[in-house]
Please model this.
Amino acid sequence: MCLKINTMKNEILVCCECGSSESIQIKVWNYVNSNEYAGECTDDSNDRWCEDCEEHVNFITQQEWETENKK
Model:
């Protein structure tokens, strides 16, 4: 069970500033008439947003965030 939790934390992306996983967003391309996902715009932080921080941010894994913020 511990291995599964660690694997999951390594796959979940969070805001590098606040650690939120629920409030992060990324710009995507969608087909207008079908609203079907076509892909991400870029891998640039200007296309990534955190509602909690109200700013453009980078994403890191939950495991990385927890390691960096253990003090």
